[in-house]
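Amino Acid Chain and Its Fold in Token Form
===========================================
Scope: a single protein chain, as residues and as a discrete description of its fold.
Amino acid sequence: labelled as such and written in the usual single-letter residue code.
Position: the record begins directly beneath this header, with no further notes in between.
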Amino acid sequence: MKINFTKMHGIGNDYVYVNCMEKELENPGEISIAVSPRHFSVGSDGLIMICHSDVADAKMRMFNADGSEGKMCGNGIRCVGKYLYDKGIVNKTDITVETLSGIKKLKLNIVNGKADTICVDMGKAILEPKEIPVISDDIMINKPVMVNGKEYKLTAVSMGNPHAVCFVDDVDSLDLEKIGPDFENLSIFPERVNTEFVKVIDDKTLQMRVWERGSGETFACGTGTCATVVAACLNGICKKDTDVTVHLIGGDLIIRYCEDGTVFMTGKAETAYEGVFEYEYKA
């Protein structure tokens, strides 16, 4: 079976995008596993299907590199918006995209006829432990947690998927390949968790590395960056209703956590190339 795809990325958080407006792929989790290996296949953080929606301009379904389906992807949804506009599927700069965590609103900035930077209304940050989900008696802000014999202080936030934010003195020296899985599989997070390790530069600037559940370390994580700024505000590091720049391996995102709890994310979306992937369904 031949699958036409477009390789896109949001500041280095890259996925294989497939137009499924007429028919969704069978076994997308298996296909995500097949396309993700970087030395043996296309190479990506996973697969995103752009599908028909009865309630929005399109529907996004995203799958991690291990085949698990995620509810939301901040960098991925910006690329979906760019795909829809650049391919002429929609001809407007205000776009709605259905996800498993609700309908998201996108505002596209057009440069030379192509979508360039995109602002996403990510909805309201979720702090209630049961909704994240995390096992905690109350809202989890800077709570000490033992990870493989060492104490870390974590703040739990959901932006449609669970995040644990950890403020540290230095992010560059962290061995995420070693410690990342320990955080991902903490027993207090029943659905596993994405973990952000964050260095504070000043009250409007942060540096972050991320270990994503199902994918490992990625160059960027949109929902994780949003969760990080929310956590920074909850911990008194940053202020609400203020643009905060977050430096990630793949580039910068600008996040604003509003007084009413809504989070806005602005960043670039880019197309790398198009191709055809030959896939044989496993019996």
User: Anything to note?
Assistant: Residues 74-86 form the longest helix (13 residues).
